[in-house]
Amino acid sequence: MKLIRQVTIAVIMLVSLVYSLAVWWLNLFFTIRTAIPLITLAAILITLIITRRNAQRAKLSWLVPGVVTLILTINITVLSYNHYFTSFTPNKWHHHEAYRAMMVDDLIASYQLDTMTQSEIIDLLGEPTFSQLADSFYYLGNKSAILFLEWLTITYQDDQVIEYRVFVD
């Protein structure tokens, strides 16, 4: 029975760690947005409950708090990374072009683009990647896959924004 509990604790901690590392890796290289991994939090809570009951009997009781701390640190790092690149500021837009796809939702929510003029848009976002007739195209990069690129298209009529949309190419 004791061996089964120890194996269960070890498996839960290992799965939590692997899951957290996978989420962190995906966010780092593919800029996929995630929330707090609920499975990791559940695993941490289960591990803490089991360990607390068996703390006197466990030979390596110091290992569990260490692994739990590592898992929480990884998840906090991922959340901080996500929050930084999902919130729009003109400075981040200009200096972190690879993360524009992550910022565009906050841009649209924070600014009423359809009430702005072309010069206000250029002041906010800079010169478009390219223009065609009355449309300006801003390259966003990709959110979730290397193969699909996203663009912000803004259409003007008489120097006033009449439509904007995000599309995948």
Shape: rod-shaped
Across the major sheet, the strand order is 1-2-3-4
Helix content: 55-70%
Strand fraction: 15-25%
Distance between the termini: 57 Å
- Largest sheet entry: 4 strands, antiparallel
Give the strand tally.
4
- Domain count, please report it: 2
Which consecutive residue ranges, at least 5 long each, have pLDDT under 50?
29-36
Based on the model shown, name its key terms.
4-stranded antiparallel β-sheet; 169 residues; 6 helices; Beta-lactamase Inhibitory Protein, Chain:B, domain 1; rod-shaped; alpha+beta
Please give a structural write-up.
With about 170 residues, the protein is of the alpha+beta class. It folds into two domains: about 1-85; about 90-169, Beta-lactamase Inhibitory Protein, Chain:B, domain 1. The chain is about 55% helix and about 15% strand. The protein has helices spanning about 1-30, 40-55, 65-85, 90-95, 100-110, 120-125, and strands spanning about 130, 135-140, 150-155, 160-169. Strands 1-2-3-4 form a four-stranded antiparallel β-sheet. α1 runs antiparallel to α2, α1 runs parallel beside α3 (about 65-85) and α2 (about 40-55) packs antiparallel against α3. The longest helix is centred in the first third of the chain and has 29 residues, at about 1-30. Keywords: Membrane, Transmembrane, Transmembrane helix.
